[in-house]
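All the exercises in this workshop are built on plain-text protein records. A record pairs a protein's sequence with a compact description of its fold. Backbone structure tokens are a discrete shorthand for how the chain folds in space. Once this layout is familiar, the rest of the handout is easier to follow. As an example, a complete record with its sequence and its structure tokens follows.
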Amino acid sequence: MPTSALTGTQPGTTYVSMGQLKPLKIRLESASNGGGCGTTGGEGKASCGSSDGPQDMPAEVWDKVKNHPCYSEEAHHHFARMHVAVAPACNIQCNYCNRKYDCSNESRPGVVSQKLTPEQAVKKVVAVASAIPQMTVLGIAGPGDALANPRKTFDTMRMLTARAPDIKLCLSTNGLALPDLVDEICKHNIDHVTITINMVDPEIGAKIYPWIFWNHKRLTGIEAATVLHQRQMLGLEMLTARGVLTKVNSVLIPGINDQHLMDVNREVKKRGAFLHNIMPLISEPEHGTVFGLTGQRGPSAQELKAVQDACMGGANLMRHCRQCRADAVGLLGEDRSDEFTLDKLDAMEVDYDLEKRKAYQDKVEQERSAQQAAKQQALAVASALQAAQDLKVLVAVATKGGGRVNEHFGHVTEFQVYEVSAAKAHFVGHRRVDQYCQGGAGDDEQLPSVVRAINDCHAVLVAKIGACPRDELMLAGVEPVDAYVGEFIEKAALDWFNDYRARVASGAVLHQHRGDAAIRQGAYTALAA
């Protein structure tokens, strides 16, 4: 809890007050009543929608997350989402945010190409869902705050439920207005809410939030951060009590809240958060944010993973977030919003067929079942091998979707990274890169940055790779592997790992820990020879 908190005498109760603010009493009951993500927690279990299925959660919860690409890592390979930009106003200012409208060349939260009315939003959702039958989720994530624009947000949800009742409804909020609108959220059957919580200590919060607008007044400094903290904690508890699945987003800001996020993780778990998504700060100067203009850097991929790993054992972690635009359309990691601009919608033939959508999604479920069976088969082989049972490595994967190894190394704009051992192949993050191949030829100046993005991995699984990047990867100690083209990612990673373990056991290859990104040379001398 924040340093300004006053701890009450009643166990499980925390009182927070400051100045003329009304004392806020928060009951910490959710940790004991199963309000969080499953029962085991902390290890990327099925409770967070991993590939293992519903064994670790009630059936009604599994039904809410099984085809939700944000709440299920495994589902994000197969199901799409979209955001509609109906909420332009915001009631707080964040030093990492600069809302941009009519902008098509930036991929980050708070950016949109077109602001929509609720009527336009519903028209767009129906068109997208007709063209993309695996689109299962509609979210309102800005470009401001969904609950700072309650009428527009809830009008959109109400009209969409009447028009497309099979689509799951989500919203994202900073939490300031949340406690006052929980009843309205439940009234509209919104089962998924994301709250951005970057601190539980107002002294840290004051470095992130210049001001908030609350009760018709603008508050600044620690006073503003204290009010925001109180409202966020109360709103989270209220959602948990009503059975709404809540994901907490936290922006990792090096030097400000990087060490503090472990406290955030612990506190949101107490209050029943289903998932905790720790995201890297985006702070390029050209985005015009306060942090970008003052030189605040974002974390490296390795730093992000280290903080996420340090939170293991607390609230369950989401690691597959792509920090989507407020008008994103498609699978996570892709954006098809340009296909559905308002001018194009008028010319589209829209056929919203519930049965057709269900039939398509049933086929997707068959593919998921095949993926799960392939994974279990590979795990059985891995567990049968006795050598090097404690070995654990990172593997990068080039994929363009469907949960398969199916992308050329030179065409990758994002690698998916898995931690692989005899017990699991577990997704731990993604690494964005600039595409190496441009116009059919490799960009030699770009190649080093692509290799650096995955130089803590032991291998990269690809559909195809040229001689030059193959040599550079080998020199960096990353084994390029094109032997598993078209196979499911987890099975391919485990099959490679079983072969790698056999080579380590026989002495054919030297195993080397890849945690230090500076240690890269000579790990694969036997293979290179």
Q: What stands out?
A: The mean pLDDT is 80. The domain at 372-528 is CATH 3.30.420.130 (Nucleotidyltransferase; domain 5). The two ends are 56 Å apart (CA to CA). Residues 259 and 307 are 8 Å apart (CA to CA).
